[in-house]
Amino acid sequence: MIYPLRLVASVGGAARLLAAKGYRFVLGAHQYGRLTKQTLVRFPLIVKNLNITISHMYTLGIESIPLVTMIALFLGSATVTQAVYQMSGMIPFRYLGALVCKTTVTELAPVITSMVFAGRVATGIAAEVACMKNSEQLDAMNVLRLDPIRYLIVPKTVACIVMLPVLVIWANLMAFTGAALTVALTVDVTMHTYLSGKKIFFDAIDVYVGVGKTAIFGAIVAITGAYFGFTAKGGAEGVGNATTKAVVVSAVLILVFDFVVAILVM
Amino acid sequence: MLLKIEHLRKHFGNQIVLHDVNLVINKGEVLCIIGQSGSGKTVLFRHIIGLMFPDGGRILLENEVISSPTTKPSDFNKVRKRFGILFQGAALFDSMNVGENLAFPLRELTNFTEKEINRKIGDSLEKVGLKEEFKTKMPSELSGGMRSRVGLARAIVMEPEIMLYDEPTSALDPIMTDKVNDLILSLRERLNMTSIVVTHDIGSAYKIADKMAMIHEGKIIFSGTPGEIRQSRNPYIQQFILGQRKRVYALDEAETYAGKVELGKLKPSTKTQPAVGSENLVNKKFEMPARKPPRLPTGGKGR
Ligand SMILES: Nc1ncnc2c1ncn2[C@@H]1O[C@H](COP(=O)(O)OP(=O)(O)OP(=O)(O)O)[C@@H](O)[C@H]1O
Ligand SMILES: [Mg+2]
Predict the structure, then answer these.
(1) How confident is the model at residue B163 (pLDDT cuts 50, 70, 90)?
(2) Confidence class of residue B246 from pLDDT cuts 50, 70 and 90?
(3) What topology is assigned to B3-233 in CATH?
(4) Beta bridge partners of B11
(5) Is the ipTM of this complex over 0.90?
(6) Within 6 Å (CB) of ligand 1, which residues are found?
(7) Which residue has its alpha carbon closest to ligand 1 atom 26?
């Protein structure tokens, strides 16, 4: 008699826990959506404070260049090395260039750059907003009728939307450089074979889509950082949790949207 | 009657911070709110300024409800510009220097030219006793008292109709305290500004207040003029304004922290000797709120 009751109780408990978690998730998604909407409708207002946006473009974008350069160079080298290893004996090396080019331009450069960018920027935004919340600076802005979304989030979001594609273009160039260097220095393929292979299936649309989708990723990074900043709990631990969640959730969302874009383009 | 607070109630989790707060503030008045640390003064301020909304009760501004359990933050926006606040921790924008902190609201919300803005900033800083050269300092480079004064300068630069000060002088030396007190009074003279001041400094309160209110256990247990509060025979109030923690009545610490103490149950401290003349107060019922000052016993037995 007791046992089935216990079973029911524990199943019930688990269900309730799951329901609570699900409810929190839905609530969070709703708030996230609302924040996104509030951010988007304020976009036209940036013309009045263009200087803030431009300074963010510098700190979020230009200052990421060394990091992106570094990563893209190795990304290119690794792709070539792996491709040569996988292809040898099966696929002629004149397709090497095409393979490397396509994977880099469509997936690797955009996604890896966005991930790195999320690690640098989403955390920064989340920490900044969370600290401002904890020290009542957001309250002070509200009381002074200075809309925090307009003055804090919109400039950063716009800066991310503009600068992440720029960084990805740069990452593409650097990845090609890295790949070419690797071909020249290590693997057993001639530069001529590699470069002529690049042109075989080259399609400009790949570049446009690859770079264009990162504008969305930029928005995801900024808004996710802002969301976890705004919802952060108090104290140093709250700020730490906010930054962690910001980077994890932006990485997941980037991959999800990458998949969505891939389906749409197909 | 400018501002009226009716039956305000607020709880966090199972801690009831505001039980039933009733207050009336008239135009041009300086109201000082006193009360123990943690008694809910800041929470009350956050309700008045529209950063929190009550679980019960309401706040009226000129007979219009501005805050009630059903008010949305966006509904509050239309009256927001009439309020200004100095936060307890100053809440300066720490990515901007002092000058930019003051200029930010002016640039965004007013049509002043850059020159006028500069002049206004200089004026405000001077009023709180800071020199112009502090304009380029970052908030992190200021002392606690200076930060609080910059916060004050930022709040008054917009010249709100109703100004809330959350412990404006608790980080200041006596001279600066005096200067800030004079500032509060001069704002009233010049702009007929209504001020609500939370303070632990009874001396300042006596100096600036038209009316004083004491908050305890989430209720306003006294509201009246400084003269009336001085004559109040409520031993808890006396203890508070005289700063004698253990002379007459002492809250049992364990009970206070557990939030269990009720006013009516205050017992005279057995650990310390009762103050002279307090014996005949010990068993008296409290009159809450003591609006009219009860006449002091003249030549009573206790003397
Ligand atoms: N956001 C909040 N969440 C939960 N509890 C809170 C919150 N804000 C305040 N409290 C609680 O409300 C009570 C009153 O806090 P409040 O800050 O109003 O005190 P206070 O009267 O301003 O004290 P002090 O003189 O020390 O500034 C405290 O017990 C505090 O723990
Ligand atoms: Mg306080």
Answers:
(1) very high
(2) low
(3) Rossmann fold (3.40.50)
(4) B16
(5) no
(6) B 12, 17, 35, 37-43, 88
(7) B37
